[in-house]
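Appendix C: a fully annotated inverse folding record. The material below is reproduced so that readers can follow the format used throughout the book. The structure is listed first as tokens, followed by the designed sequence.
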């Protein structure tokens, strides 16, 4: 029997066959659910993992970000959001919708001079922050060879390749940690790279949520085989504690498409893009209904995406 790669448990494991839905060629991948830490994890080797990414993957995930909002509007929003405004959940969701990425630094209390490392992605997020006041930004990605954004430092490498002497005030992993098959090594490295009062922000899909309960292996955030691990908050805490870190806060922020796409996966053979297109074609009142459902799930801490605020453990 295999061992859980998060906590080492090998008892009462449950297995699921999950369909790949972006290329949608009918392939399925085996996932294993650990009864102890509650992590759903890819349970087979995928030697050709790069084949499941490619240019289309990056351009699709990034194209919705809006870069053209004037600096005199975006800068104050960035500043205020870093201080934790707005506190109101509805207002937060609304603003985040308009300026998609500004809230990646929400409530960090770090200023424009802070050293920021973004792990995973083609550099668009960092380029946006650089353009709007943040002076010291670096982006790294293992698969993306070059960044088209010339105003940032971009390195084609893994976080574990960085020198321990490099220090950062903020390390962000915006939907990238779940793509890494070595979470223990990565968190150990975060512990090395983070300044004493630094903050690591990890945004990941959360297992055990409402969408999982309803749709199980059709829950769209499994995204087989690209997502190696779907964690419970408990599993994140266990791993952080093991590597000198601690989870200070969890901010649930799930999207309005979680139930719709999962339902399409269950009821039809649609691929990811087709499911998105079907959602976009819905009448406005239907979309509002899904938005409210996501808001409600987040309030109950049952949304399927969350930001983890991670710091050094105080001795
Ligand atoms: Zn486990």
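Designed amino acids, in order:
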């Amino acid at each position: 029997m295999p061992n859980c790669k998060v906590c080492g448990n090998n008892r009462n494991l449950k297995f699921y066959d999950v369909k790949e839905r972006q290329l949608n060629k009918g392939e399925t991948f085996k996932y294993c659910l650990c009864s102890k830490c509650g992590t759903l994890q890819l349970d087979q080797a995928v030697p050709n993992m790069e084949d499941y990414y490619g240019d289309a993957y990056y351009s699709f995930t990034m194209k919705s970000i809006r870069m053209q909002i004037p600096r005199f509007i975006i800068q104050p929003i960035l500043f205020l959001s870093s201080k934790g405004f707005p506190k109101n959940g509805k207002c937060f969701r609304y603003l985040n919708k308009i300026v998609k990425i500004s809230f990646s630094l929400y409530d960090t209390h770090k200023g424009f001079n802070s050293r920021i490392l973004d792990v995973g992605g083609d550099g668009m997020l960092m380029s946006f922050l650089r353009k709007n006041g943040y002076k010291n930004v670096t982006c790294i990605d293992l698969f993306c060879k070059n960044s088209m954004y010339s105003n940032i430092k971009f390195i084609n490498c893994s976080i574990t390749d960085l020198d321990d002497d490099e220090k950062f005030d903020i390390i962000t992993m915006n939907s990238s940690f779940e793509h890494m098959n070595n979470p223990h090594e990565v968190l150990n490295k975060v512990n090395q790279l983070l300044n004493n009062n630094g903050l690591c922000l990890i945004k990941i899909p959360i297992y055990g949520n409402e969408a999982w309960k309803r749709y199980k292996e059709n829950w769209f955030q499994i995204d087989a085989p690209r997502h190696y691990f779907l964690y419970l908050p408990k599993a994140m805490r266990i791993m952080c504690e093991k590597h000198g870190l601690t989870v200070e806060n969890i901010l649930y922020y799930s999207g309005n498409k979680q139930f719709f796409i999962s339902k399409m996966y269950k009821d039809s053979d649609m691929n990811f893009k087709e499911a998105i297109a079907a959602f976009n074609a819905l009448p406005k009142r239907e979309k509002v209904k899904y938005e409210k459902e996501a808001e409600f799930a987040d309030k109950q801490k049952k949304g399927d995406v969350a930001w983890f605020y991670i710091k050094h453990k105080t001795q």
